[in-house]
Amino acid sequence: MAMVSSRLVFLFSICILISQAIAQPNFLYYSCLDKGNYTSNSTYNTNLNQVLSSLSSNTEIEYGFYNFSYGKSPDKVYSLGLCRGDAKLDICRSCLNNATNLLPLLCSNQKEAIGWYDYCMLRYSFRDIFNIMEDSPFYM
Ligand SMILES: *[C@@H]1O[C@H](CO)[C@@H](O)[C@H](O)[C@H]1NC(C)=O
Ligand SMILES: *[C@@H]1O[C@H](CO)[C@@H](O)[C@H](O)[C@H]1NC(C)=O
Ligand SMILES: *[C@@H]1O[C@H](CO)[C@@H](O)[C@H](O)[C@H]1NC(C)=O
Ligand SMILES: *[C@@H]1O[C@H](CO)[C@@H](O)[C@H](O)[C@H]1NC(C)=O
Prior knowledge:
By secondary structure, the protein is α+β, with helices and mostly antiparallel strands. The protein has a single domain, classed as 2-Layer Sandwich (Killer Toxin P4, Chain A), CATH 3.30.430. The chain is built from four helices and five strands. The protein has helices at residues 2-23, 43-57, 89-106, 129-132, and strands spanning 29-32, 65-70, 77-83, 113-116, 120-125. A hairpin with a 3-residue loop joins strand 4 and strand 5 (120-125). The longest helix has 22 residues, at 2-23. One 2-acetamido-2-deoxy-beta-D-glucopyranose binds next to helix 3.
């Protein structure tokens, strides 16, 4: 019984994924996780901008994995950018650049958000992302 219902949940998530992909041509999927809000021009806002701009402007990392944080608790922002293994470096950077611009617009004033393009994913949070990975259904 538990098996059946978890399969149903899984199928249901796929339906949501597909419908969101149709509704939002830029991201394949994104989610504003509603874990908290920040106000415009707050320290959190500034730190988030800082972390996203260092992620999108980085030219040293060449392996498609970006792990940045900035600021001091409780306004510290963690971010994680990841490109698909077969994405070329310029596509990877362009993809993350697009994601860092779009995600905060779509999830305005949300402290935590995640977005997936074809070639990359971006996530940011006030929580250490390496401790919350297991929350995500995408890391199966
Ligand atoms: C954030 O703000 C939205 C709308 O302004 C509200 O619906 C939501 O409950 C808030 N979330 C939290 C975690 O405070
Ligand atoms: C945030 O700061 C900018 C520039 O300092 C200002 O133009 C803008 O009106 C401020 N926004 C809010 C919501 O305070
Ligand atoms: C990611 O960054 C955090 C804090 O900036 C650090 O503690 C952690 O070790 C890093 N993880 C990896 C896999 O680089
Ligand atoms: C980023 O956005 C630009 C402009 O919309 C688009 O031309 C480009 O293909 C996008 N990059 C990726 C990797 O999706």
